[in-house]
Specification:
Low-confidence stretches: 1-19, 214-223
Mean pLDDT: 84
Order of helices and strands: HHHHHHHHHHH
Radius of gyration: 20 Å
Shape: globular
Helix content: over 70%
Structural class: mainly alpha
Strand content: under 5%
Oligomer: single chain
Number of strands: 0
Number of domains: 1
Length: about 220
């Protein structure tokens, strides 16, 4: 089936720069810092100050702001930084209003629940979300939906993300409901970037069978 060549094709032919690496998809080392340091700092400061939620929130937001400023200084995209600052600031606001430290992590939990639901619904209506996302990047438009093999692969890959977000919820939600702030912070970090990287890798293993361009770019073959 013919389709419009996207950036994967153009990248393999040398017409333009290669797509971002796995590290780049999470915003590089700064992205990793943005996804972990505010939550670690909040928990440490909250504990050290006698469970002062406001102080912990201020420190967390300040760290996010510094990391965002670092991106600006390095003239990098502010996409990750801005979303990080907004998320941390919202969590700090909620926690300061309720006085409960665990509410600092509530926005992330809600995002995971919404993401799991979105992927699940997309599978039920036979419009797997991974297909919509990947087709936007590759430039193939809606051609994938008329290809049973490709649509099936996108559906399987979407199930990976349903499982990923559901797994995060199964770990974080009980800790949140129990008010276990320290373990919740650890779970937030451990099930964050590492689990995301695993989801990307497993999705790649599924999709490279129906997206030869991926193997052409990486120079690998399917075992």
């Amino acid at each position: 089936m013919e389709r419009e060549p996207g950036w994967i094709t153009r990248a393999t032919s040398g017409d333009e720069a290669a797509p971002p690496s796995l590290l780049a998809t999470v915003g590089g080392w700064l992205g990793i810092a943005e996804a972990t340091l505010p939550f670690i700092a909040f928990t440490i400061v909250w504990t050290a100050t006698g469970r002062n939620v406001v102080t912990g929130g201020i420190v967390a937001v300040a760290i996010s702001a510094v990391l965002a400023a670092a991106r600006l200084v390095r003239r990098q995209t502010t996409q990750f930084a801005l979303s990080g600052v907004i998320g941390v600031a919202f969590g700090a606001f909620v926690a300061s209003r309720t006085g409960k430290a665990e509410d600092f992590f509530l926005p992330g939990i809600l995002i995971n629940a919404a993401s799991a639901t979105a992927y699940l619904v997309s599978i039920v209506v036979r419009r797997p979300l991974i297909g919509l996302l990947v087709s936007t990047v590759t430039g193939e438009g809606r051609a994938w939906y008329r290809d049973p093999a490709r649509r099936g692969a996108y559906t399987k890959a979407s199930w990976i993300w349903v499982g990923l977000f559901s797994f995060r919820l199964s770990i974080q939600l009980p800790l949140y409901l129990s008010g276990l702030v320290g373990p919740l912070a650890v779970a937030r970090v451990v099930t964050g970037i590492p689990l995301f990287a695993l989801g990307v890798w497993l999705s790649y293993l599924l999709l490279r069978n129906v997206l030869p361009e991926l193997d052409a770019r990486t120079g690998t073959t399917v075992p």
